[in-house]
Every structure is written in structure tokens, then in C-alpha cells.
């Protein structure tokens, strides 16, 4: 699922300013034909910048997610990337956990199945709910999107 999709319109290969606040999700030029253009850019961008936590056991991912819920999510607050990074360093079983779960920018087609779906459909600044993939259980912080 999603293994044969490669970004065909990847014109923005150079690095853009990672600190851009809202202009990264517009345009919609490089979509793969899945869904139309949406006002918030979900599902239409070519690249996403994300952090994640990966755990083999569902109980451990739920424990990590609860830490974020108790501190921010239950209050309706966004989780600061530095705080997400602390949880990733403590709980994640992925090598990226040492870097605070940082996966950097990645294009459509690079990540498998449900991970890609969740990463490209989580609003910037939001944390996804925990979900299962072939690698285990994850949740994702979306830090940016661009075309």
C-alpha cells in the first residue's frame, strides 16, 4: 500500500526555511490525484516534517501518549517539539528516538502504509492518536508541510 507512489512533482528539492509558519500548505500543485485540494493543505502536500514515537507494545505507546495528554493535549494545548522530543527519547524504540523522534522532511511514498497516511493527514503542530503499523505502535507530531 503506497509503495508504488513516488512524488512526481518534487520541484522543491532544495531546503526551504523550516521556520515558515503558515505558507507551506498552499498551492496543491503536486498532488497524486488522491482527494481534492483542501483549504488546510492536508493530503495535498508533497513533503512533511515529523517526529514520532515507536514502541513494540501497545501498553508502552499508550503510557507515552498519556504523558502528552496529561501535560498538554487534555488542555487543548499544542505539544512543544522540545517536550515531544523528551517523550521520544524516553519511550521510543526507534533509532530516531535518540534525536527526539525527529524524522526530518520526507516525501510521499517514502513511508509505508498507515504511517504515511497519518503523517500526511495530521495538521501542523498537532499530535496524532496512537496507531499500529507493521513496525509497531506510533504517534506522530507533524512539524511542517511543503510542496
Automatic annotation (TrEMBL):
<protein>
    <recommendedName>
        <fullName>Peptidyl-prolyl cis-trans isomerase</fullName>
        <ecNumber>5.2.1.8</ecNumber>
    </recommendedName>
</protein>
<comment type="similarity">
    <text>Belongs to the PpiC/parvulin rotamase family. PIN4 subfamily.</text>
</comment>
<dbReference type="GO" id="GO:0003677">
    <property type="term" value="F:DNA binding"/>
</dbReference>
<dbReference type="Pfam" id="PF00639">
    <property type="entry name" value="Rotamase"/>
</dbReference>
<keyword id="KW-0413">Isomerase</keyword>
<dbReference type="GO" id="GO:0006364">
    <property type="term" value="P:rRNA processing"/>
</dbReference>
<feature type="domain" description="PpiC">
    <location>
        <begin position="45"/>
        <end position="144"/>
    </location>
</feature>
<dbReference type="InterPro" id="IPR023058">
    <property type="entry name" value="PPIase_PpiC_CS"/>
</dbReference>
<feature type="compositionally biased region" description="Basic and acidic residues">
    <location>
        <begin position="1"/>
        <end position="12"/>
    </location>
</feature>
<dbReference type="GO" id="GO:0003755">
    <property type="term" value="F:peptidyl-prolyl cis-trans isomerase activity"/>
</dbReference>
<dbReference type="InterPro" id="IPR043323">
    <property type="entry name" value="PIN4"/>
</dbReference>
<feature type="compositionally biased region" description="Gly residues">
    <location>
        <begin position="20"/>
        <end position="30"/>
    </location>
</feature>
<feature type="region of interest" description="Disordered">
    <location>
        <begin position="1"/>
        <end position="41"/>
    </location>
</feature>
<dbReference type="InterPro" id="IPR046357">
    <property type="entry name" value="PPIase_dom_sf"/>
</dbReference>
<keyword id="KW-0697">Rotamase</keyword>
<dbReference type="InterPro" id="IPR000297">
    <property type="entry name" value="PPIase_PpiC"/>
</dbReference>
Amino acid at each position: 500500500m503506497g509503495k508504488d507512489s513516488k512524488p512526481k512533482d518534487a520541484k522543491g528539492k532544495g531546503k526551504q526555511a523550516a521556520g515558515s509558519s503558515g505558507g507551506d500548505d498552499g498551492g496543491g500543485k503536486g498532488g497524486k490525484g488522491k482527494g481534492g485540494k483542501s483549504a488546510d493543505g492536508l493530503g495535498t502536500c508533497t513533503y512533511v516534517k515529523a517526529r514520532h514515537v515507536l514502541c513494540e507494545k501497545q501498553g508502552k505507546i499508550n503510557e507515552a501518549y498519556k504523558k502528552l495528554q496529561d501535560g498538554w493535549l487534555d488542555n487543548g494545548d499544542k505539544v512543544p517539539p522540545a517536550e515531544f522530543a523528551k517523550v521520544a527519547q524516553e519511550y521510543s524504540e526507534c533509532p530516531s528516538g535518540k534525536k527526539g523522534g525527529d524524522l526530518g522532511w520526507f516525501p510521499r511514498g517514502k513511508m509505508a502504509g498507515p504511517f504515511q497516511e497519518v503523517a500526511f493527514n495530521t495538521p501542523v503542530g498537532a499530535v496524532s492518536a496512537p496507531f499500529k503499523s507493521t513496525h509497531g505502535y506510533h504517534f506522530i507530531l507533524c512539524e511542517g508541510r511543503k510542496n
